[in-house]
Amino acid sequence: MLGIALLFIGAVLVVNGVGLTGRIEARENAVFNFLIGMLALFISLLGIIRSVDNAGYLSVAAGLLFAFTYLYLAVVQWKGMSGKGLGWYCLFVAINTLPMAWMAMAQDMRSTVMWLAWGLLWFLFFLALALQKNIRSLGIITVIIGVASCWIPGFLMLADRW
């Protein structure tokens, strides 16, 4: 299921990155963010049903960090809100990526790098949304992280090449 989630999260990061360059209207992006947020929520809920220990629940919690990011972003975009609250949520998520990266280090360095890349992106969104910092390259960074840390790994997982 992780491959499916990553493939579509990669897609939404690419679309959001393009949106940050002004090529896609925010309300149009809101629809895709809602769909991906619901997909991540559904996958996480399946994980809750299948989990039997704390490691499983931690994986579910990680998935919910993504799900709520995209659902929250969908509402912000649809309603034309400032996103300051979403920015502070992004800081919370960015902080959580640090222990996730540290724990992944013992198993798979690729996962560690992915968690650090996601943490960087969430931190940049904290700066952009909560603190209203102008990060000119945020759209390009979002696309690069989406492709490198989600789309390609997700596709490789699904193709059994990871």
UniProtKB/TrEMBL annotation:
Q: Record's InterPro entries?
A: AmiSUreI_transpt, AmiSUreI_transpt_sf
Highest taxon above the source species? Bacteria
| UniProt keywords, alphabetically | Cell membrane, Membrane, Transmembrane, Transmembrane helix, Transport
Topology class, membrane: Multi-pass membrane protein
Q: Where do transmembrane segments lie in this chain?
A: 6-24, 31-49, 55-74, 86-106, 112-131, 138-159
Query: Which locations, inside or outside the cell, does it occupy?
Result: Cell membrane
Major location (coarse): membrane
Naming one, the record's GO cellular component terms include: plasma membrane
> What family does the database annotate?
Belongs to the AmiS/UreI family.
Q: What is this protein called?
A: AmiS/UreI transporter family protein
Species, as recorded: Collimonas arenae
